[in-house]
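Collaborator request, handled under Task 6.
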Amino acid sequence: MSLTIFCLTGMIADIIGGGNFTLDHYRFTKMVIGSIIVGLGFGIPTFIYRKDSLPMPIRVIIHMGTGCVIYTLVAFAVGWMGGTGSVAKAIVAAAVQIAVAFLIWYLFMRYYRREAKEMNERIQEMK
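Structure tokens returned to the collaborator:
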């Protein structure tokens, strides 16, 4: 997912910039590696959802907290956030990042709940 978002963002930047989107000093490679790390940062913690003894809000906080912290660290490391921007820009960028992360999580949650409901209905029909 993170690589898809990264590629789409790059394409949009290239189109908006009139084909003048350039990266030097291995910045593209660093960003691709960063996207992979972000994908792992949000993907690996999903195993927490198998721990039924934890309440769902705690599982969501662990999953999203881990992913958002990893994203923020990677974003500063590869140059997606930070640089010459102000503190206000960093706060807005972090807020947008958290909002997008929770939106993606919410959409996946709705999809899988619907799948589970349909599977349960089919099981009940088989009885």
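The cover message to the collaborator said: "The CA atoms of residues 106 and 117 lie 16 Å apart. The mean pLDDT is 85. Please let us know whether this matches your experimental observations."
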